[in-house]
Amino acid sequence: MLTDLTKLRYEQYMYAHVLRPLGMTNSSYNQPPAVSQRKNLATGYKSNGNEVPGKYFVYPEKAAAGLWTTPTDICKYILEMQQAYRGKSSKVLNQEMVKLHVTPYKNDVAMGTFIQNRNGEKYFDHTASNEGFSGLFIGGLTNGKGAAIFVNSDDASIAAIELYRQYLKSGDNANELSKSLKNDFEYFRNAGFDHSVIKKASDTLSLYHQ
Hints:
Blueprint: H1 2-6, H2 10-19, H3 35-38, H4 62-65, H5 71-85, H6 95-101, E1 114-118, E2 121-130, E3 133-140, E4 146-151, H7 157-170, H8 176-184, H9 187-190, H10 196-205
């Protein structure tokens, strides 16, 4: 429908009206990726450590599975959502539309994201999973906090382990950001993660090329 109305290909419209205004210049919906992009693309890996044939899949369903991005670019989206929610920015969506975007219409499901309450704060989050790739992001709507992590493996537990590893590294002398991360992601400990997970993570990561 978007293409019919705008006369632009989906990836063209999204870059011009969403990605570029947000500063997400290392992201695109090109499927297959443009030749100029390919040198920067990671190789996807299966959970057994084998490469995805052809390095990565090409997805014709661009809106649902076609986004190539980076954690840094996703954080730019998180920051803009936080600013727009407070009425301090409107690079893509104004305050009214952002509030609609993060309003659940069934249980915790909103439009393109999920909503959760943690320690009295409201967060929006989403996981990501394509063949050979997985990740997650989470952002607080009013507290300015957020995180994004992606790995080139379809073993999504690696992303959770890495986030928990950063939690452990923060230590007693952590700066304020790390202290906030420790507070907000305490659920990893409650979910059963402990220091032994880090050794398991090293064993798992050894299956993958650097």
